[in-house]
Amino acid sequence: MTVREIAVGDLEGLLRLYTELHENPMPAQGETLSALWHGILEDKNHHIVVAEKKGEIVSSCVVLVVPNLTHGQRPYALIENVVTAKAFRGRGLASACLDYAKQLALQHNCYKMMLLTGSRQESTLAFYRKAGYNSRDKTAFVQWL
């Protein structure tokens, strides 16, 4: 297994993995998708972490570093789109991606990391607790647009 940041040639593999995240359809290839992809790659605060097995992307998470004017002007990190392919779950791949994400947050001098999950499954919640997250310190609210 290799855990690393995404590379320019990884888009199709990442999108294939994302079809297992909330049953997302494979998006149409085109200029809009290409522009979005290159914008993400060029954004120094947008990181996509992937775990691959035999050249296939099988787990991933997104780390966004948000500049901040509080807490000594230290940024914070948001974690999103945590997913592992069904055939590879339970092997520590998502944990490895989250560990890599934490190292990125530390390198950026973030004072905290936050993530939200829509899952109510105790196994998912226990996974995040084991990864060092807690649900006691903050209350999350979401407004869908």
UniProtKB/TrEMBL annotation:
<feature type="domain" description="N-acetyltransferase">
    <location>
        <begin position="1"/>
        <end position="145"/>
    </location>
</feature>
<keyword id="KW-0808">Transferase</keyword>
<dbReference type="InterPro" id="IPR016181">
    <property type="entry name" value="Acyl_CoA_acyltransferase"/>
</dbReference>
<dbReference type="InterPro" id="IPR050832">
    <property type="entry name" value="Bact_Acetyltransf"/>
</dbReference>
<dbReference type="Pfam" id="PF00583">
    <property type="entry name" value="Acetyltransf_1"/>
</dbReference>
<keyword id="KW-0012">Acyltransferase</keyword>
<protein>
    <submittedName>
        <fullName>GNAT family N-acetyltransferase</fullName>
    </submittedName>
</protein>
<dbReference type="InterPro" id="IPR000182">
    <property type="entry name" value="GNAT_dom"/>
</dbReference>
